[in-house]
TrEMBL record:
Residues 31-66, 259-296 are annotated as: Disordered. This is Uncharacterized protein. Keywords: Signal. It comes from the Bacteria. Residues 1-28 form the signal peptide. It comes from Terriglobus roseus. Residues 57-66 have a biased composition (Polar residues).
C-alpha cells in the first residue's frame, strides 16, 4: 500500500472511530458493566407472587432491561411522546441544541448519570431494600441511598447528581421524591435532553409479582419543559446469581479522545447504538484535518 493509500486508510479509521465512539460509547460501557449479559425475555422470568418484607412488598433483586416494545426505545426519556419529542421551553430547546452540537456525553467522560437518566438507561441495577434505607447499585459502580425515615427536604440541599432523595410508602408503592440536583452537568437521558437546577423527580416503584418491577416517573423542570414529563417502564428479575460488578469507567478510557459532541445517530425508532450506524460516513476529503495531520 502506498503512502497516500495508507494516509487515507488511517484517516478513515480515525473519522469512523470518532463517530462510532460518539454513537456507542454508553452502550459499550453498559455491555462491559453487565459483562455482556443480554436483556431478559418474559420466558426467562420466574413466576410467583410478590415477595414481602414486613408489611411492604420486597423490591430487592437484580433488575434487567425488558425487550418489550412498550419499554423501547431504551435511554430515551421521550419514548412515549409522539416523535419522541419532549415539550421544550425555548430555553430547553436551546439547551438541547447546545448539547447536541457542543457537549460530549457526560457519562462517556465518567460523570455520574444521576436521575432521571439512570431510570431510562439500558443498564441493569441491583436494589437492596432495608427498613429505613433503600440502596440502588448500578453497573458503573455507582450507587444511591434513599432514606425512608420520615425526614423532609432541606431548605437548601447541597446539589448532587441524584438529588436529595426522600423515600416513603404509599400503600404498596415505594415513592422517591428528589430535588436539589446539580444544574446542567448531566443529561436527563442518553439523547442529550437537558435538565436544569430546577429539576424535580417523583418515582413510584411497584412490584406486581415476583418477576417484574415497574416504575412510573414524573419529571418536572419548568425552566426547560413546558409541562411535566411522564415516563414509565418495567424491569425483569435477573437470573439467579446475577449482580452488579466492579467497573472503572475512567480506567484505560481509550474512547475519550475520539468522542464527538451530542448523542450520535438516533434512528427513526428512537434507538441508538452501533448497529444503527450504517453505512459508515463518506471518506474525508484531502483537506480534512484527519488526513492532512497524518504524516507520510
Amino acid at each position: 500500500m502506498g503512502s497516500r493509500s495508507r494516509k487515507y486508510a488511517l484517516a478513515l479509521a480515525t473519522v469512523a472511530m470518532g463517530i462510532l465512539s460518539a454513537v456507542g460509547t454508553a452502550y459499550a460501557q453498559e455491555a462491559q458493566a453487565n459483562r455482556g449479559r443480554p436483556a431478559q425475555t418474559e420466558t426467562d422470568v420466574p413466576k410467583g407472587p410478590t415477595p414481602r418484607l414486613g408489611t411492604h412488598p420486597n423490591l430487592s433483586g437484580y433488575w434487567t432491561t425488558s425487550r418489550s416494545a412498550k419499554d423501547k426505545p431504551i435511554g430515551n426519556l421521550g419514548k412515549d411522546y409522539p416523535g419522541y419529542k419532549l415539550p421544550f421551553t425555548p430555553a430547553g430547546d436551546a439547551a438541547h441544541k447546545y448539547n447536541v452540537e457542543h457537549t460530549v456525553d457526560p457519562e462517556a467522560l465518567c460523570i455520574l448519570g444521576g436521575i432521571p437518566r439512570h431510570n431510562a438507561s439500558g443498564l441493569g441495577f441491583q436494589l437492596l431494600q432495608g427498613e429505613d434505607q433503600t440502596a440502588f447499585l448500578y453497573g458503573y459502580t455507582t450507587y444511591r441511598f434513599v432514606p425512608v425515615d420520615g425526614r423532609k427536604h432541606a431548605d437548601d440541599p447541597d446539589p448532587t447528581y441524584f438529588g436529595e432523595e426522600i423515600g416513603s410508602w404509599d400503600g404498596d408503592t415505594f415513592v422517591i421524591d428528589s430535588v436539589g440536583f446539580k444544574g446542567t452537568q448531566t443529561w436527563a437521558d442518553e439523547n442529550a435532553d437537558p435538565h436544569s437546577d430546577q429539576l424535580h423527580v417523583v418515582e413510584r416503584w411497584t412490584r406486581p409479582d415476583l418477576g417484574h418491577l415497574h416504575l412510573e416517573m414524573i419529571v418536572e423542570d419548568p425552566k426547560f419543559y413546558t409541562e411535566p414529563i411522564h415516563f414509565q417502564r418495567t424491569w425483569l428479575l435477573g437470573k439467579a446469581g446475577q449482580q452488579v460488578h466492579e467497573f472503572a469507567c475512567s480506567e484505560n478510557n481509550v474512547d475519550a479522545p475520539h468522542i464527538g459532541p451530542g448523542p450520535g445517530f438516533i434512528g427513526p425508532d428512537g434507538q441508538r447504538g452501533y448497529e444503527n450506524l450504517a453505512p459508515l460516513p463518506p471518506p474525508p476529503s484531502k483537506n480534512h484535518p484527519a488526513v492532512t495531520s497524518i504524516p507520510e
